Amino acid sequence: MDLALVLNFLRDLAAHNNKLWMDAHRATYHQARAEYTALVAELLRQASADLEPGLRGLSPSDVMFRINKNDRFQQSTEPYKRHMGAGLKPGGRHSGWAGYFVALEPGGETYVGAGRWMPEPAQLARIRQEIHYNAPAFHAIRQEAALLRQFPGGLDTSQALKTAPKGYERTNPDIEWLRLKSFFVWQAFPDRAVRSPDFPARVLEAWQAARPFVQFLNEAMRGDEE
After folding, report:
1. What is the DSSP code (8-state) at residue 80?
2. Inter-helix orientation angle 135-142/121-133, to 10°
3. Burial class (CB in 10 A: 0-12, 13-18, 19+), 122
4. What are phi and psi of 184, to 5 degrees?
5. pLDDT in tens, 163-206
6. What is the C-alpha to C-alpha distance for residues 61 and 37, in angstroms, rounded to an integer?
7. How many CB atoms within 10 Å of residue 106?
8. Is residue 113 within 8 Å of residue 187, measured between CB atoms?
9. pLDDT of 1-58, one tens digit each?
């Protein structure tokens, strides 16, 4: 797979983010998309065998996000995302489960991540409840050496309530984590790492380190599906 081609296309797209340019370079887009699809297919093949059995039977099209922006969340006039991304989760990219993510974007903006970003209210309540009831296990998982080697920043705390969630006291010893609205870890990769032949292996290594974290979240949320 030629991920340099993907980065080059996305770099050009960022400089000419409009439908007229995209229409004129549609063939190049399809080439870049094919290379990214090859990456996702390889990651899906290995992850479904070694990481998450719930991914079995899914195809790249089930987990890859469209490059067109969703108008409901559009924060600029640009019609296209500046990255190509995928969410490998049981049930596909839009399912409610925690899972594994990879998004390619030039300029060192490529990221590999894992977890559940902005879960639905019922799911969020269950995750908080599990942290409250099973705090030692949660802290052991989030402080696991393998996880922090791959994701040195630990859990992303950028999405959090300013006060305690309903049902919890501000003096709760775990309030820092109960306030979170997302439960996610991620790490950026420089372009040279993306172009390296071992990039897929590095992605899988990071996801493997995050597996206990993802399993904790999914077990907490599982009651929603019972």
Report:
1. B
2. 100
3. exposed
4. -150, 140
5. 999 999 999 999 999 999 999 999 999 999 999 999 999 999 99
6. 8
7. 20
8. yes
9. 899 999 999 999 999 999 999 999 999 999 999 999 999 999 999 999 999 999 999 9
Among all chains, which residue has been given the structure tokens 């969020």? Answer: 124
Please, is 98 exposed, middle or buried when counting C-beta atoms within 10 Å of its C-beta (0-12, 13-18, 19+)? Answer: buried
pLDDT at 71 over 80: no
Task: Output the CA angle 62-66-72, nearest 5 degrees.
Answer: 115
What angle do the packed helices 3-15 and 26-50 form, to 10 degrees?
Answer: 130
DSSP designation for 102 = E
Q: Is the dihedral of CA 21, 22, 27, 29 positive or negative?
A: positive
Q: Which two tokens stand for residue 157?
A: 């705390």
Q: pLDDT tens for residues 34-43?
A: 999 999 999 9
Can you tell me the distance from the alpha carbon of 86 to that of 67, in angstroms, rounded to the nearest whole number?
11
Residue 127 DSSP code: H
How far apart, in Å, are the Cα atoms of 34 and each of 3, 40, 59, 114, 163?
Answer: 10, 10, 13, 24, 46
- DSSP output for 157-219: -SSB-SSPPTTS-TT-TTHHHHTBS-EEEEEEE-HHHHHSTTHHHHHHHHHHHHHHHHHHHHH
